[in-house]
Amino acid sequence: MHADYLIVGAGQAGRRAAESLRSLAPTAQVCLVGDEAELPYDRPILSKEALFNVEDEARAFIQEKSFYESQQIELRLGSRVQKVDRVARQVELASGERITYEKLLLATGSRARPYPGQVGEGVKLLYLRTLEQARQLRSRLVAGTRLVILGGGFIGLEVAASARKLGCEVTVLEPASSLLQRVMPKVIGDYLLELHRQAGVDVRLDTLPNRITRGVNGLLIESNRGTHEADEILVGIGALPNVELANEIGLLVENGIVVDEQCRTSDPHIFAAGDVTSHFNPLLGRHVRVESWQVAEHQPQVAAANMVGNEESYAQTPWLWSDQYQCNLQTLGFFSGTGPVLLRGKVEEGAFSVIELDTEGRLLAVATVNQGRDMAAFKRMAASGKSLDAAALADSATNLRSLL
Ligand code: FAD
Description:
This protein is an alpha/beta fold.
């Protein structure tokens, strides 16, 4: 078989690229190959509503099967690409089938980082990356279940909130001394810690698990702070980019497939988009790998435009959100982790923003807690690169639009 545009990975980025390619090249042969058996779906709902019931799970699917048929997007699901031949411009599927291409897009995403400690015989750890894993987790989250979550990152905390709503007894083991320590200012970590503790989650900081075994009354997690008992253990310790294919064919890979702002790899016929990329962000002046809905939604549209011969750039300030209980957290840019931060609004009222400016007074990063309506103004501030009045910014009486 031949495809003018062949996409490997039928996740959000792959689906988005296929849609764009179809509208940019109405008569081209577009083929989307994915190793999961499901139609392409968006993952954010998997740690949220999809854990409650099967009806909510359906919202993960953005397009129905009939869409791909009507758009003549050839879907090969449950098919893993196991080899790429750059010279012949051809891929080989696990079934042995070969597909030649004119332009190839790698949208292979990432996978859950496996738990690196000792795990005894008969212990089954849970992960949350795929719909299949969300279904498995949902079936285990019944009231009274003792769930221990390894890792207090975004996914771990979202599952903790969902599991509490379902009546589970939840413990979170986090090796760092505050939640989201690598990515968020301490005020946000402290706020979330309080939020989860008030909801009845037993959050243990500075706690590093080292051995998991099966005991008489369930699973036993031995840590530097003692032993914890569980019926189920969810591992939420980050994700790894699926770069194996790119490595095998000698593309440049450094914590993700290295691409420029036009999604081009080191091979002129191969592009990459989504979670798997370490992409050059012209607004930040460096390569970044960001696991977010934003990148998976917008970067493939740029990749598609350039695959058909245009010259477009992906240049957006990194943005993502997390929902836990009634709390909506959004972050824009990257906090330095060293500079002072401004507080706008009141933490005790549960509606505030934390802002970091660079040495020139430009917006470096912001995190909003239940203040998502301000995000549009912050995005414009970040894009403008304008120096801002710190005192006015920190004053919640100041209309943000007046600072633009
Ligand atoms: P993926 O979604 O990983 O898709 C890649 C696909 O390619 C997968 O199906 C994979 O199996 C397949 N594949 C890999 N190798 C091959 C191969 N060789 N052959 C064929 N197929 C292959 N972001 C936010 O901004 N806000 C949120 O609230 C949020 N919540 C999230 C909750 C969860 C549970 C998860 C897992 C992620 C969440 N994210 C969130 C992040 C965001 O959804 C991801 O970053 C996004 O899914 C990335 O899309 P992608 O298409 O690049 O990669």
